[in-house]
Amino acid sequence: MEKISLNKLKPGDQGKIVNIFLQGASGRRLMDLGFIPGNEFTVVRNAPLVDPVELEIKDSNISIRHEEARYIEVVVNG
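== Ferrous iron transport protein A ==
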């Protein structure tokens, strides 16, 4: 399975979080929101040029900035 960054996905894409390449407060915040390796997600919305990227993780909808999504490595189902 190919690993790609989360910001490249389209609405409806589903996958699994593999790694987070942010450290410090930003990385901890993402993990607190549910961005933990192994967690599955669905992309709800991803505007190509403007924030946010909206995802469903564990029955919660979470929005993050494109800049943060660039540092989340995922594999896509399918």
